Amino acid sequence: MKNEVKTSPVAHYDVCVTKIESLNKHTFEIELLAPEGTVLNYKSGQYLKLELDVNNDGQPLWLSYTISSRLEADKPNRVSLIIQVVSDFSGKVVDCLFAAKASNQPVKIVLAMGKAFLQTNLDQPHLFVAAGSGISKIKCITEEILHRDPDANINIYWSNRHSDDFFLLEQFHNWATTHKNLNFHTILESAQPGWTGRTGFLYEVIQQDHIDLKETHAYLCGSPQMVYGTIDQLNALGLEERNCYSDVFEFSPRAEKLEA
């Protein structure tokens, strides 16, 4: 689906790194704060670009990260990111942010980008599908939906390769306990020792739980193969691509149908 929606102009800000919290052994939540009185204009589900001299060579890079926190009226100058250390490069990114926090040195951001933000009718069911760190976008959109309509119908499916890749589980489980129409499912790609939860492809687990997705809006976060493959597999249940939203539609337009 091509999301032909209007977005606000992007803007540059200087922000301070005010908090870095470890969520698991390789995942960090980063809090950025703009000067008091600043309003960071973004929609839940968008992303920003962060300027860092990652290689310490005087040539800063602009890096894209999904915004993981909804825009709050009482703190409109605050924004959060979730960054996973999965390579030497991402490790350097986190090191740069620790250094910026320690020195109280501002960093530059540009926001907001992305057309796959929350824009759907909350009276209809919502299906959220995430692989790995894609849950950052889902977290942000879920926060916004629950703020607007605590009784909204939401089904969240989150897949990882290993059980210790999950994070913020307490928050998601609390949402599922507190909000009667919110269901949260964790999935591993394949069975592992000690894992008693569900396994398999995301679309397989969703097919086990649903028989009709015709009126459902879906937000999908992951690789192009996962996103397009899941949509194609769920088409038999009535899920229509015009009711689907993903950043993949912008950075990797569909050329042909892919397997999940």
From TrEMBL:
| Single annotated GO MF | oxidoreductase activity
Q: Which UniProt keywords apply?
A: Luminescence, Oxidoreductase
Domain FAD-binding FR-type span(s) in chain numbering = 10-119
Q: Which InterPro entries match?
A: FAD-bd_FR_type, FNR_nucleotide-bd, MRET, OxRdtase_FAD/NAD-bd, Riboflavin_synthase-like_b-brl
Entry's Gene Ontology BP terms: bioluminescence
Similarity comment: family membership: Belongs to the Fre/LuxG FAD/NAD(P) flavoprotein oxidoreductase family.
Q: What is this protein called?
A: FAD-binding FR-type domain-containing protein
Species: Pseudoalteromonas luteoviolacea S4054
